[in-house]
Amino acid sequence: MSTKNLVLSVNAGSSSLKISLYGTQHSGGDELEPVQLILTSSISNISAPPAKFSFKVSGGTSKDEQLSSVHDHASAFAHFIDCLGREADIDRARITHTCHRVVHGGDYTDPVLINDEAYKHIERLSDLAPLHNGSSLPVIKTCLSQIPDAKSIAFFDSAFHRSIPAHISSYAIDQKIAKQRGLKKYGFHGLSYSFILRSVSRFLQKPAESLNLIVLHLGSGASACCIQHGQSLDTSMGLTPLTGLPGATRSGAVDPSLIFHYTNKAGRMSHDKGSAVQLHVTQAEHILNTQAGWNALAGTTDFAAITAQRKDDDAARLAFEMFADRILNYVGSYHLKLGGAVDALVFSGGIGERSKELRALIGERVGCLGYTQVDEERNGAVDGTDGVVVDIGAAGALTKRLLVCRTDEQLEMARQCTLGSF
Ligand SMILES: Nc1ncnc2c1ncn2[C@@H]1O[C@H](COP(=O)(O)OP(=O)(O)O)[C@@H](O)[C@H]1O
Ligand SMILES: CC(=O)OP(=O)(O)O
Ligand SMILES: [Mg+2]
Fold this sequence. Notes:
The model is unreliable at 273-277 (pLDDT under 50). The longest helix is centred in the C-terminal third of the chain and has 24 residues, at 314-337. An eight-stranded mixed beta sheet has the order 5-4-3-2-1-6-8-7, with helices on both faces. Strands 11-10-9-12-14-13 form a six-stranded mixed beta sheet, with helices on both faces. By secondary structure, the chain is an alpha/beta fold. It has three domains: 6-156, Nucleotidyltransferase, domain 5 (2-Layer Sandwich), CATH 3.30.420; 205-252 and 299-422, ATPase, nucleotide binding domain (Nucleotidyltransferase, domain 5), CATH 3.30.420.40; 254-291, no CATH class. Helices cover 35% and strands 19% of the residues. The structure holds adenosine-5'-diphosphate, acetylphosphate and magnesium ion (MG). Magnesium ion binds at residues 13, 219. Adenosine-5'-diphosphate binds at residues 13-16, 219-221, 248, 301-304, 307, 349-351, 354-355. Pathway: Metabolic intermediate biosynthesis; acetyl-CoA biosynthesis; acetyl-CoA from acetate: step 1/2. It holds the Pfam family Acetate_kinase. GO terms for molecular function: acetate kinase activity; ATP binding; magnesium ion binding. ATP binds at residues 18, 217-221. Its EC number is 2.7.2.1.
């Protein structure tokens, strides 16, 4: 029997599945991490087929293919499990823990071992994160049945934001109803923010508890976070991941009354056949989650294409400029909440890590608040630069720095799993 020493980390995003497999026995490598990467896989475009699949054993070359057979997170994960044995000769029985990113944890503020009760809790919260919790559930189910000896642990994206004070997390509504129904700002992308906080702390050689950061996680779903003394003080998503910044298919914040005017059927229940589970969301929520954002504005969820076309195409320009405008709303207000004492503005997520154009524009606009200038050469060379954190500001800046962080939610979970008490 081969040694049981593997941790599988699964990140079900709104339209992607990112999976990493780690070893837990140290054999050199990065002494700072308790786990070592063995392989990564990602399946993107799940909701806009054909899905793109990639599978890469560490140090090897990536196997990439388009999959017409994959149309949801369950079939995407089944394809990965198949590849694990076929392509990498990994015996699933060696996996001791499977870590699952669950976007909405409600009142769960720590990771939990998934038993019947925890599974039902995650299921109940599906209505509040329709693009996410519903996608995690079939993947969790498959793990429980296909890797039965491994412990399945849920890590919640909302947990990082438990530190947000009541006057920031509460909505101005009847507080009795708010408390009864759990209507408050939860915030998401927390695994990413934990990873970024730790990585920036290491990069700046300052304790995490001393750091004030404004972090932008700009991916298919996008959010901003105001971190004071190493804790979340505010974030742009709310009760659900719909509000705040616009995303690939999400509207971001709108006047709540808009939903009553968008269509005359907006208040009815949605009966979308494509949903992974029966969701209790209204048609308006469904439209604002899935038929809005970049796709509605510019006809594509690919922000690289929007960036490339923005000079010649009005729709692409509107999407690009709108994103920058909404980002500045949060950066400006978080700067003020931190009293101007900001160690760094950090860009992350697929767009934040790759769009030098957006970083240059935001960097230029925040110059008036005393941020260091974007160094054009460093900003343009991020893709070819190694390291988790890359400095794109002028050399010598000690505060109000501009950084890029390659976030890794799977590593954050595997790390917490190994160092925790599971
Ligand atoms: N070169 C690029 N320039 C701008 N955006 C990019 C680039 N490459 C990828 N992206 C965008 O990154 C986003 C995906 O980010 P990611 O954080 O991986 O998303 P998620 O995990 O939420 O599925 C997509 O909207 C994609 O268009
Ligand atoms: C919370 C959220 O929006 O996640 P993602 O960006 O992975 O869709
Ligand atoms: Mg993501």
